[in-house]
Amino acid sequence: MTSTLTATATPTGGRATAVPVRLRGVSRSFPTSAGRHDVLTGVDLDIAAGEIVALIGASGSGKSTLLRQMCGLDTPDAGEILIGSRPVRDVDQRCAMAFQEPRLLLWRSLAENVSLGLPRGTPAAEGQARVAELLRLVGLTEAADRRPRQVSGGMAQRASLARALARNPEVLLLDEPFGALDALTRLRMQDLLLDVHAAEPTTVVLVTHDVDEALYVADRVALVGSDEPGTGADIRSLTPVPGSRPRDRADARLAALKVQLLEGLGVPTHHRD
Predict the structure, then answer these.
(1) Domain check: are 198 and 252 in the same one?
(2) Residue 142: which domain range?
(3) Nearest-CA neighbor of 224 among 243, 242, 211, 213?
(4) 127-141: pLDDT as tens digits
(5) DSSP 3-state of 208
């Protein structure tokens, strides 16, 4: 995971607060040798301040494109995206985006990598205190001086999450952040994400292929896809997840929702003779 955005210090020097995100009629297409390829068509979505929304869908359904639209790394052909009351224009400094690979600088310590996410102009003493706080939050205080090659993949992902949070984002966008981890580490990272969100409740949009992960961490799960082949994707369903976080992974209500979502993805949930 890494952020490709450049932060600037908030005027008050304090933490940013969570804000709502609204998408209205967002569409995006790309030219190909066979003609125009519609990826997104008329996407409408409202995300409340401090909410965690998971986007699921088949590979190539437009989930990552939608995430990039939200932070201004890509521009819609039509429609509008608002963070708070202001529309997204170009790369939006109110967002931090993180990806599947940690993408840490190998020649810097974990603490130094986290510090790269600090808003530009942060005073040195304040920055050091913030980095120390984030390392403590993600459980890396003892590993602060280690370099990426000296830690596990899960520890590198924790450092990347801390780096994204260092910019004090109003909106945190996560694109398959745990997809490259082993199963046990992935479960632990899901719990860590919830702990971090409880401590710093920014608005979170998570892209994942793991339905169990979506149901465990999110307040709502958006199924991204198209009803007909060759047409751009939209939000086909938006499912509230029952119960408060952290949830019981064995909750029967989650199992029923998993079946529903898998069917929406076109995945059979039982075998027929």
Answers:
(1) yes
(2) 102-168
(3) 211
(4) 999 999 999 999 999
(5) coil
Of the three residues 129, 150, 168, the one that is the final residue of a domain is: 168
Beta bridge partners of 49: none
**Same domain, residue pair 146 and 183:** no
Q: Which two tokens stand for residue 64?
A: 């990552």
Which CATH number covers residue 260? 3.40.50.300
**Hey, what are 192's tokens?**
């860590």
Would you say the C-alpha torsion 154, 73, 265, 23 has a positive or negative sign?
A: positive
Domain boundary among 168, 195, 225: 168
Q: Check residue 15 and give its pLDDT.
A: 62
Torsion of CA 26, 5, 204, 130, to 10 degrees: -160
Q: Are 145 and 177 found together in one domain?
A: no
Report the DSSP beta bridge partners of residue 86: 83
Structure tokens at 81: 């995206």
Instruction: Indicate if 195 and 70 belong to the same structural domain.
Output: yes
Look-up of token digits 């961490």: 217
In a domain, 67, yes or no: yes
Shared domain check, 185 and 142: no
For the chain, the residue count is 273
On the question of pLDDT at 255 being above 90, the answer is yes
Tell me how crowded residue 153 is: count the other CB atoms within 10 A of its CB: 16
Domain identity same for 126 and 206:
no
Q: What global pTM score does this model have? A: 0.89
Least confident of 12-21, 94-103, 116-125, 151-160: 12-21
Average pLDDT, the chain: 89
Residue among 42, 53, 90 nearest 172 (CA): 53
Q: From 90, 224, 117, 97, select the one nearest 173 (Cα to Cα).
A: 97
Rounded Cα distance between 133 and 69, Å, is: 30
Q: Using CA atoms, how far apart are residues 220 and 197, in angstroms rounded to an integer?
A: 15
